[in-house]
């Protein structure tokens, strides 16, 4: 499975701060939020219950560090050009957000 970094906010943490923390924890990269890209909403089943999940996505800039998998949740972390990422990402919502990021940028990292 190939996916963008994501996770849940910790107590008292706003969504942009949570996004930056998840990027750092999962990839070892320090980033800066440039702007909000949008939301991905999907449904899944857990313990026989249907659950609605909303993921807020942000366009970020690289500040420092090189991608290194965390060894726990992530087995591979690497830079991928946006156009290539659209082809490789496993989830439609991730592909949609990368397509939006590409539309807002020159296609760099």
UniProtKB/TrEMBL annotation:
List the transmembrane segments.
none
The GO molecular function terms of this record are: bis(5'-nucleosyl)-tetraphosphatase (asymmetrical) activity
GO biological process terms, semicolon-separated:
AMP biosynthetic process; ATP biosynthetic process
Know the name of this protein? Answer: Nudix hydrolase domain-containing protein
The answer to keyword Signal applying to this record is no
- List, alphabetically, the InterPro entries matched: NUDIX_hydrolase-like_dom_sf, NUDIX_hydrolase_CS, NUDIX_hydrolase_dom, Nudix_hydrolase_domain
UniProt entry keywords in alphabetical sequence: Hydrolase
- Cite the Nudix hydrolase domain residue spans from the record: 1-103
User: Which Pfam families does this one have?
Assistant: NUDIX
Taxonomy, superkingdom: Bacteria
Q: Which PANTHER family match?
A: BIS(5'-NUCLEOSYL)-TETRAPHOSPHATASE [ASYMMETRICAL] (PTHR21340:SF0), DIADENOSINE 5,5-P1,P4-TETRAPHOSPHATE PYROPHOSPHOHYDROLASE MUTT (PTHR21340)
Stored CDD domains: NUDIX_Ap6A_hydrolase (cd03673)
């Amino acid at each position: 499975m190939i996916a963008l970094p994501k996770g849940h906010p910790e107590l008292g943490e706003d969504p942009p701060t949570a996004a930056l923390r998840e990027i750092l924890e999962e990839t070892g990269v320090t980033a800066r939020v440039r702007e909000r890209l949008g939301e991905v909403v999907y449904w899944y089943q857990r313990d026989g219950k249907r659950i609605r999940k909303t993921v807020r996505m942000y366009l970020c800039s690289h500040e420092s560090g090189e991608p290194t998998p965390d060894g726990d949740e992530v087995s591979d972390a690497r830079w991928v050009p946006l156009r290539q990422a659209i082809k490789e990402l496993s989830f439609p919502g991730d592909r949609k957000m990368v397509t939006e990021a590409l539309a807002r940028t020159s296609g760099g990292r």
